[in-house]
Write a structure and sequence with these properties.
- About 35% of the residues are buried.
- Helices cover about 40% and strands about 10% of the residues.
- Strands 3-2-1-4-5-6 form a six-stranded parallel β-sheet, with helices on one face.
- Helix 1 crosses helix 4 and helix 3 crosses helix 4.
- The chain has helices at about 40-50, 60-65, 70-80, 85-105, 110-120, 135-140, 165-175, 190-200, 230; strands at about 25-30, 125-130, 155, 185, 200-205, 220.
- With about 240 residues, the chain is of the alpha/beta class.
- The longest helix has 19 residues, at about 85-105.
Length: about 240
């Protein structure tokens, strides 16, 4: 797959919290841990890989890896535990384990169908913005009836810089043909939240059991779940 072209983004001025929030004109949705409960699968994969090398996976390491792309993610594991493996070797091993576990363990996050129905009825365009590679998106979304409702899909294959870099959400704003402050970003991780905030978007954090202790500075709301009515009211 071709490497995305290098792009230089100008810094986005941070929104003053005293300013009114513009009407939401586009919604950018993370995938792992936000729409689907895949973080526990990644945890199992990471722990299996590290046990083979005399280590154990941890919340601190997971927080460092979240939102990063491909070899950049596993490089965090190599650096954290001073492993001898190359990032390419470790990524291939991770892919094999993840591919074996995904079909049997994949499940939606609570409230996913209701939230997607609410999005569809609102008429606000929404898109997928995930650091996962497109091959895993294609597996997870293969039989979802609402995939065609997505305005576009951005994956880790489409950007050079993973979260917390703002490239994903600046690119999403361009594809929506919106200013970042018109976009609502939903994220479950600190790195993802930081990416949305740095892009100048309005961020709602929805932590899961693996991310509750992470830093969500700059989020306009830390919601309980996809069913949180405070989130739903942002589209009314």
């Amino acid at each position: 797959m071709a490497t995305p072209p290098h792009r230089v983004f100008e810094p986005i001025p941070q929104r003053d919290d005293s300013e009114p929030i513009p009407a939401v004109a586009g919604v950018a949705l993370d995938m792992d841990g936000l729409l689907f409960d895949t973080e526990r699968i990644y945890w199992q994969v990471g722990d299996t890989i590290l046990q083979r090398r005399g280590h154990r996976y941890s919340a601190a390491l997971q927080a460092r890896m979240m939102g990063r792309i491909g070899t950049a993610a596993v490089q965090q594991m190599i650096d954290y535990h001073a492993l001898d493996d190359s990032a390419e070797e470790l990524l291939a091993e991770s892919d094999q384990l993840y591919g074996e576990l995904l079909p049997g363990l994949l499940r939606p996050m609570p409230g996913l169908e209701e939230w997607i129905d609410h999005l569809q009825r609102s008429g606000v365009p929404f898109a997928l913005t995930t650091s996962s590679r497109r091959k895993w998106v294609d597996v997870i979304f293969a039989e979802l009836h609402w995939r065609q409702s997505l305005t576009f899909v951005l994956t880790g294959d489409d950007v050079r810089q993973g979260k917390p870099h703002p490239e994903m959400y600046l690119t999403a704003a361009e594809k929506f043909q919106l200013q970042p402050q018109q976009m609502l970003v939903l994220e479950d991780s600190g790195n993802g939240c930081a990416a949305g905030v740095a892009a100048g978007a309005n961020v709602v954090a929805i932590p899961n059991e693996h991310t509750r202790e992470q830093d969500f500075s700059g989020a306009m709301l830390v919601a309980e779940s996809l069913l949180d009515q405070r989130l739903w009211q942002l589209l009314r």
